[in-house]
Structure formats: structure tokens, C-alpha cells
Amino acid sequence: MTEHSTVTLETATPVISPDTQTVTEVEHYTDSLFRFRVTRPASMRFRSGEFVMLGLMGDAHPETGKQKPLLRAYSIASPAWDDTLQFYSIKVDNGPLTSKLQHIKVGDQVILKPKSVGTLVHDALTPANRIWFFSTGTGIAPFASLLREPETYERFDEVVLTHSCRDLADLKFGQELIKEARNDILIGVAAQHKLRYYPTTTREISPKMGRITTLLEDGSLFSDLGIAGFNATSDRAMVCGSMGLNSDMKRILENFGLREGANSDPGDYVIEKAFVG
Ligand SMILES: Cc1cc2nc3c(=O)[nH]c(=O)nc-3n(C[C@H](O)[C@H](O)[C@H](O)COP(=O)(O)OP(=O)(O)OC[C@H]3O[C@@H](n4cnc5c(N)ncnc54)[C@H](O)[C@@H]3O)c2cc1C
User: Fold this and answer.
1) Residue 242's closest CA among 145, 140, 147?
2) pTM
3) What distance in angstroms lies between residue 159's CA and the mean position of ligand 1's atoms?
4) Model pLDDT for residues 150-182, shown as the tens digit of each residue
């Protein structure tokens, strides 16, 4: 589906089993990107920035007729306090899950394993003044959670989101997210003062072009934002993108003297893959 469309369900239909949730909203952005919301299991707790396993039943086995769940890792793209769970998804041609998932409609059921995990959480970082969220493509999803999390603004004086995509249409989800954060009842005032947004395209011509790693290494990111640079005292970072972005960012951040953190050993930066492959 290429046209921009939103469908919303006012009253969710009842949930069939503990691992099955009902789709309440679907919005398609491009041929390869869409977002959706599902009901939240009543007992589910998670930390903003974490991911869960989500999917659909696979096709029936040709001989036995049995169906197995087809599950993939998905970052929760809504904050821990939200009543429903939002996800932001790729549509992979011939992808086992997303070739089906892209057709979900309001009222459909998805499988959601409520146990959440992940390293892009506040607990994995030590305190500082400024937090950087570096993302490419659907790697923005965990930051859609953290940008609407009050703790982000309580812990940091400045919050910078960078989002790099090939084309301008791929930035739309992030643009809407920023607008929503700045108008949010809970964190809107803090976001208006503290949140900065740095979108770039890598293919289509736009006001700011280039890979974030290049813009970091040639200093344009800092000069554009009027920031002197990174240092381990004032800056913390979270990174979510392809394997290539993640390994380049790890090298760059460590060259600036930042140390990788984990849930069990908080540090200066944390990294998570936006997908495998
Ligand atoms: C920790 C973690 C969190 C994730 N969170 C999300 C998320 O929030 N949203 C999301 O869309 N996907 C996310 N993924 C990827 C997701 O798990 C699936 O890979 C994706 O849904 C495609 O599933 P599939 O079965 O259609 O294809 P798969 O067989 O899983 O993937 C086929 C190929 O498509 C490419 N691909 C897969 N996912 C992406 C992607 N997101 N962006 C660009 N290329 C991709 C890769 O080259 C991959 O080898 C996450 C993965 C991990 C490890």
C-alpha cells in the first residue's frame, strides 16, 4: 500500500489468549514501512526502550496441517506508561513474517510474548547532561518509547535524536513522533525545551544529507547543533541500527572516550541491532 492511511479501532475486541493481542490501529507510510498498535496484556510490565517477540501463526504444514507461531523481535515503540503497545515495522519482500504482517487490519489478532528485554534502557547508562539517540530506519522504534518516557527528561538536560533514512518519506514516522512529544500532556513542556531532532537522508535530496557516521566524523553534526563534541563526562548515547552502523558507532564513541554499558554494568553508551542480517 503506497498511500498514507490510518485506521483506528475505538473499542478493542476481546483478547482470545494470554499471548494473543488485538490490533487497534494501522498506519502505512510507504511500500516498506508501517506502524500498528495492539492491546496491552493487563499484567505486562516493561521498561521504555525494550523489545518483545511478536508475530502471527505460520502457514499450515502441508502434511500434518499443524501451524507454528512465526515470531520476530520487535522494539516497543510506545512508553512504559501507555495503555496500548505501538510497533514500527519494515515490510520485507518475501520476509517470512512481514510479508504477512503488513496486511494486518484493525480487529486482527497478533501473537505477543509479554516478556520484554533489551539494552536500550536508562538502567544501563550512568547519569550525565546530554543523551544522544542515534537511529537508522526502523531503529528509531525504541526511541519512540524513550522520547515519551518522563525519566528521559528527568535524567538529562538535553536529548538529541538523529534519524537517518534513504528517502524523505521514511522520516515521516519520526517527524510525527517529535510533534507528538512536544504536544504531549506528560512530557510536552520538557520536550519543547530539551528535545532536539536531527533527520538526514542518504539518497533523496533533502536539507540535510549524509550518513550520521560521516557527519559525526567530519564534525558537521556538532557544528549544525552548536555542540562542542562528545565527552565521557557530559554525554551518553544509545544506538540502534544496522550491524554496519552499530560497529562504526561503537568505534567512534570509544574514540571519544565513552565506555559501553549494560543492564548489569551501567556505562556511557549502549547499542542494539535494529535487525539481524
Ligand atoms: C532486537 C531487535 C529488535 C527489532 N525491532 C524491530 C522493529 O522494531 N521493527 C522492525 O521492523 N524490525 C525489527 N527487528 C527485525 C525483526 O525482528 C524482523 O527481522 C523483521 O520484522 C522482518 O521479519 P521477516 O520474517 O519478514 O524477515 P527476516 O527473515 O527476519 O529478515 C529478512 C531480511 O530483511 C532485512 N531486515 C529485517 N528487518 C529489517 C529492518 N527492521 N530494517 C531493515 N531491514 C530489515 C534483513 O536483511 C534480514 O536479513 C528487530 C530485530 C532485533 C534483533
Assistant:
1) 140
2) 0.94
3) 26
4) 999 999 999 999 999 999 999 999 999 999 999
| C-beta of 53 in contact with ligand 1 (< 6 A) | no
Q: What fold, for 5-117? A: Elongation Factor Tu (Ef-tu); domain 3 (2.40.30)
Number of alpha carbons in the 13 Å side-chain half-sphere of residue 193: 8
Q: Report the greatest alpha carbon distance in the chain.
A: 64
Place of cell 533533502: 206
> How confident is the model over 16-54, as pLDDT tens digits?
456 999 999 999 999 999 999 999 999 999 999 999 999
CA of 246 to the centre of ligand 1 (A): 15
DSSP code of residue 260: B
> Is 58 close to ligand 1, i.e. is its CB under 6 Å away?
no
For ligand 1, mutation pick of 59, 86, 90 (most atoms within 8 Å of CB): 90
CATH top-level class for 122-273? alpha beta
Task: Parse the chain into domains and list their residue ranges.
Answer: 5-117, 122-273
- Torsion (CA) 14, 21, 95, 32 in degrees, nearest 10: 90
46: CA distance to ligand 1 center in Å? 21
Ligand 1 atom at minimal distance to the Cα of residue 94: 26
Ranges assigned E (strand) in 13-67? 20-30, 33-39, 51-57
Q: Ligand 1 in contact with 272 (CB < 6 A)? A: yes
- In this structure, what C-alpha cell is assigned to residue 259? 565506555
